[in-house]
Write a structure and sequence with these properties.
Layout (H helix, E strand, L loop, with lengths): L1 H16 L15 E3 L2 E6 L7 E7 L3 E7 L7 E6 L5 E5 L8 E8 L2 E9 L10 E9 L16 E2 L5 E4 L17 E8 L4 E8 L7 E6 L5 E6 L7 E9 L2 E9 L10 E9 L16 E2 L4 E6 L5 E8 L5 E8 L6 E6 L5 E5 L8 E8 L2 E9 L6 E14 L16 E2 L5 E4 L7 E8 L3 E7 L7 E7 L4 E6 L7 E7 L2 E9 L11 E7 L1
Parallel strand pairs: 1-3, 10-12, 19-21, 28-30
Antiparallel strand pairs: 2-9, 3-8, 4-7, 4-9, 5-6, 5-8, 11-18, 12-17, 13-16, 13-18, 14-15, 14-17, 20-27, 21-26, 22-25, 22-27, 23-24, 23-26, 29-36, 30-35, 31-34, 31-36, 32-33, 32-35
């Protein structure tokens, strides 16, 4: 083993000897040693020594540099542009550690690398270091410095862009504890509606956070991986071209990984109305429901998706909606009016269970279906939900929600019947009718599974008159009452508020005996 280590040391020594050497004095920008891509060998004559190297770039691309550490030296590596402005400063390790400056965006012209030492007690003039330089013309790389919206790297659309969570700090930001961030620019030149899908693979030790901003630097969306090493993504982000957006990618904690690059996979697809159009987190940005069904995802945690349903025509209609979600989420479906005020909410099932809005009376104008996760603390970027809606003309004999109070009671005449639902949980249906001649009124309700009917009768002053309860769930009920002339209200509900049935309709009939 000792012999093998000695041979390896000899090989490395010969390799270093074969590399070009620095030419002193090269202690400032003006006297920098001219080098090419490859390796160069140098030494630090003292703790205060600085070595500058100049490389001539002939084509646009990226420049990367790495210097191998030597004993007692605490290296700092900086890169300067053609205008001699410092672009990047890297100081990730302590004494004896390697330093790297990676993916520096370059254009034709001279660039300079500066190597210095932070340890005032360092004294190792005889040991040499090796500085490795590489130029890459691949357009699918980030181009440092891209630490701000103004210096954002271009993002390859419908393709792959690579970058690194490195270094862990932006040492030129004034506050040296400011964590590194990579900004990317999205340019959509076509005048149309698009969906943008973005996925970023996981990188060891990095807990990623991805944000998207508009051209005014207003943050539109933020998603996170959840823990170090996880991937991060968002789907169906709505883009209205021509437009410009910005991505900001960072680590939640101060961490970095120079060895493993991340990959940003993008898809820009024409919008065809089959999925949500993010951002749609508020009424003003609601996705228009152009078809009878659409998909969406709850991302990030706390996400709410607003979907606009437009009711045409002048007559009354009945709106029904069904929401089917992934097994990982307990979804809630709300219906709001044109001003965003809640009209109805359904929350019957648990994780993976469907939710159904059985039928709400609507008129001409806009309504909003709002999908959210019940706890506000869960998300699922991989499994979408499906939202469907049905809009039909209202007709006699159909219940028209919302009719859950005497103030919103649905009119019914003696001799008529109405079909309705006891749904969602806690639903109560109120009906208003008039008695024009004193006599006995017969009430009949056809039973439905999982619901034990409970009925209550009120006079026009809302005073209780009488109550009835079916013998068991699923059983029909029939009862009668002699009534004077006047207006009355009938409340029909389940005896247990937890009972409901979104599948089967009951039939209620009122008649004079």
């Amino acid at each position: 083993m000792r012999r093998r280590l000695a041979l390896l040391a000899a090989f490395l020594s010969l390799a270093a000897c074969g590399a070009p050497r620095e030419k002193e004095p090269n202690d400032d920008l003006a006297s920098a040693t001219a080098v090419r891509a490859g390796r160069v060998q140098g030494a630090m004559a003292s703790a205060s020594d600085k070595d500058f190297y100049r490389i001539e770039v002939r084509e646009p691309g990226t420049l990367s540099a790495r210097v191998g550490g030597i004993r007692s030296m605490d290296f700092v590596l900086s890169v300067y542009g053609p205008d001699q402005r410092e672009l990047k400063r890297c100081d990730e390790t302590g004494e004896g550690g390697d330093e790297s400056a990676l993916d520096i965006g370059v254009v034709p012209g001279p660039y300079t690398l500066a190597l210095s030492n932070k340890n005032p007690k360092a004294a190792n003039p005889d040991q040499t270091y090796v500085l490795e330089l590489a130029l890459d013309r691949d357009p699918g790389h980030e181009a440092e410095p891209d630490d701000s919206l103004q210096t954002a790297s271009p993002l390859v659309l419908s393709g792959v862009t690579r970058g690194r969570y490195y270094p862990s700090r932006n040492l030129l930001a004034g506050d040296t504890d400011y964590m590194e961030a990579d900004w990317f620019r999205i340019d959509v030149q076509q005048a149309d509606l698009f969906l943008l899908n973005i996925s970023i693979g996981g990188v060891a030790n990095v807990d990623p956070v991805l944000e998207i901003y508009d051209s005014n630097a207003y943050k539109l969306k933020e998603v996170s991986g959840g823990k170090p090493g996880e991937a991060v993504s968002f789907k169906a982000f709505g883009v209205r071209g021509p437009s410009k957006y910005y991505l900001r990618l960072r680590s939640r904690t101060r961490s970095a990984n120079a060895a493993a690059p991340y990959e940003i996979l993008t898809e820009l697809l024409p919008y065809q109305g089959a999925s949500e159009f993010e951002p749609n987190d508020q009424r003003q940005d609601a996705t228009p429901m152009m078809q009878d069904g659409m998909t969406g995802t709850i991302v990030p945690e706390g996400d709410s998706d607003w979907v606009r349903v437009t009711v045409p025509g002048e007559g009354r209609g009945i709106l029904r909606a069904t929401l089917n979600g992934p097994d990982s989420l307990d979804l809630v479906l709300r219906l709001c009016d044109a001003l965003g005020n809640p009209v109805a909410q359904v929350d019957n099932g648990g994780k993976g269970q469907p939710e159904a809005l059985t039928g709400v009376g609507v008129t001409k104008g806009d309504y909003f279906l709002v999908v959210s996760e019940k706890s506000g603390r869960k998300a699922d970027a991989r499994q979408p939900y499906t939202l469907t809606r049905q809009l039909v003309d209202w007709q006699e004999g159909l219940e028209s929600e919302v009719n859950d109070s005497t103030a919103a009671a649905q009119p019914i005449k003696l001799g008529q019947s109405v079909d309705g639902y006891i749904a969602p949980r806690g639903d109560a249906d109120f009906y208003e009718f008039n008695v024009y001649q004193k006599g006995t009124v017969l009430f009949e309700a056809a039973g439905i599974l999982n619901v034990r009917f409970q009925a209550a009768l009120y006079d026009q002053e809302y005073n209780p008159v009488q109550a009835w309860t079916a013998n068991k769930s699923g059983e029909s009920m029939s009862f009668s009452r002699e009534l004077d002339v006047g207006t009355y209200f009938l409340r029909l509900a389940a005896s247990d508020p937890g009972q409901n049935n979104v599948r089967d309709k009951y039939s209620l009939r009122l008649s004079a005996k």
